[in-house]
Amino acid sequence: MEDLGIHVGCVITFEDGFEELNYDYYICRAIDNRIGGFMIAEVARLLKENKQKLPFGLYIVNAVQEEVGLRGAEMIAKRIKPNVAIVTDVTHDSTTPMINKNVEGEIKCGAGPSITYGPAVHNILRDLIIKTAEKNNIPFQRHAVSRSTGTDTDAFAYSNDGTPSALISLPLRYMHTTVEMVKKDDIENTIMLIYQSLLNITPKTNFRYI
Amino acid sequence: MAKKQKSILTKESLSFLKNYLNNPSPTGFEKEGQKLWLKYTEPYIDETYVDAYGSAVGIINPDAPFKVVIEAHADEISWFVNYISPEGLIYVIRNGGSDQQIAPSKRVNIHTEKGIVKAVFGWPAIHTRLRGGEGKEPTPKVDNIFWIAAPVTVKKWRTSASM
Fold this sequence. Notes:
Chain A is α/β, with parallel strands linked by helices.
């Protein structure tokens, strides 16, 4: 065993890779949340290709260690001290068997990104995102959470002096399995929603509740 | 019927997605994935930095006082080698919210300094597992039923298969 380099502390991953299924579904292990890093990278690409000039500094952040308690986001939020944060992650498609919609709410693949309601989510930023979706005919779903979102949104929201933060999630089936599944349309719509929302934010946007 | 709009995703971006997904980036060990991401985003941003634990940041307009973040997380759930039995079976603990119920019968990569070692999560056969005990189906649990079959055998097989 030692000859092979295996010792206590070595990391083990499942080997299951990317495949495209019919009806524009993608499957892979770790779509949670490599797809998020992909989507924010695509936002950067589209901004550049469409020659969009932003009236603020845009920090495209691919944070480590979310799966053990939002640790990477906590560290980087302190360093950047942003004025606004839009976080993207995956969320559960709740329409497959053995999931109780009375508890989980209803989110499904193919119906667009999910926009989260909850105390950690900043109401004005969230409404800006919802208006952006409506104005640009981007389909979206609403999701409510008790207390925290369980995503890096919480880390940003409660960082520094409090940072207006919102969560745009990609619906995903079979989370933390080796066949995590998402739909291409939802990926495109999530990218567009983040992109268009950025175009509606300026340093003068008023994020004050009162 | 409405004509389907041209996708905003390109051949290049989908090729990046595939490579980025196929490359493992376990929690605490995201370095290789971050390198791929930094390389892909490089043409679209003005400046980058990476912090002490590996979070990567690409910045457009780095001098602007008002700062907006768009964020995702780069890590994926995985397992740690926790104990190697005298028989060469590896017991694991979680790194993140890994699901023991889906592990049996899966092929895995063990990440070592010498490279990747292929192995499997074993599971007793349907024929034998009920004869062992109380007649109840065993349930996969992290602490008592997990193992990864001796990778030595796998390596031998790989060597001969590749020749």
